Amino acid sequence: MPKITVVTMDTLTDDQKDKVKEIFVDSYYKEMKALSPKKENLLRGFTHVLREEAIHVAMLDDKPVAMAGCSTNKRRSMQAHKTDFLANFGMLMGPFGTACFKKEFETPLQINDDTLYFECVATDEAHRRKGIATEMLSELIRTLPYQTFSLDVYNTNDCAKRIYERIGFKETGRKKSLIGKIFLGYQENIWMSRPKSL
Ligand SMILES: CC(C)(COP(=O)(O)OP(=O)(O)OC[C@H]1O[C@@H](n2cnc3c(N)ncnc32)[C@H](O)[C@@H]1OP(=O)(O)O)[C@@H](O)C(=O)NCCC(=O)NCCS
């Protein structure tokens, strides 16, 4: 297992931040490609979406290799950016993407003050299956001052669900997703959580 360190995105150089954005767009291309199939448009459209102080990045030496958004009931780790969305996704998908993004990522989470919620967990494709996501999430659970950690995962994402279960997350509920069913080929979001100490 390669030795990683975990830092917040706001401490990185511009080149390293660009790499984090690339990991984000590559890893969620399937979800984002309806906005634009062109990766360069997605990178520009999502330039200001990640809230850097809430994005934790796994570094291998000085190279970003994975990321996890850490949200609370007061602050999400992502935000819509209407101007960038309009400029890069057009007059139809720009407003549609802004509305979907606001609904999905700017709604306050119904979680307690002592709960942290992981979202947009992703590993650089070249560094997958080396235990990096497992190590990054385990490190965040060890070090961040929260008593409960939660997340949700598509019911079709077996790989991610297995990782979360191995780390100690247990299913707490399921919610049907119309957007998932129509656009993304999944039916339900599975909510999972684990206490800090198992
Ligand atoms: C899901 C995701 C974050 C996993 O990242 P990762 O760094 O590859 O995860 P890990 O390496 O910790 O674990 C993945 C698998 O590699 C295996 N693995 C870990 N270390 C390994 C090693 N040294 N050699 C071989 N396999 C290894 C794990 O056992 C696990 O196997 P499994 O799928 O059979 O359970 C990554 O696939 C990704 O970015 N996917 C796209 C975005 C996404 O779906 N995110 C989750 C949204 S909820």
List keywords for this structure.
alpha+beta, 7-stranded mixed sheet, 198 residues, 7 helices, binds coenzyme A, Aminopeptidase
Notes on the protein architecture:
This protein has 198 residues and is of the alpha+beta class. The protein has one domain (5-151): Aminopeptidase (3-Layer(aba) Sandwich). It contains 7 helices and 7 strands, in the order βαααββαβαβαβαβ. The protein has a 7-stranded mixed beta sheet with strand order 1-2-3-4-5-7-6, sandwiched between helices. A hairpin with a 2-residue loop joins strand 2 (55-60) and strand 3 (63-71). Helix 3 crosses helix 4 and helix 5 (132-143) packs across helix 6. The radius of gyration is 16 Å and the shape is globular. The two termini are 23 Å apart. 28% of the residues are buried. Bound molecules: coenzyme A.
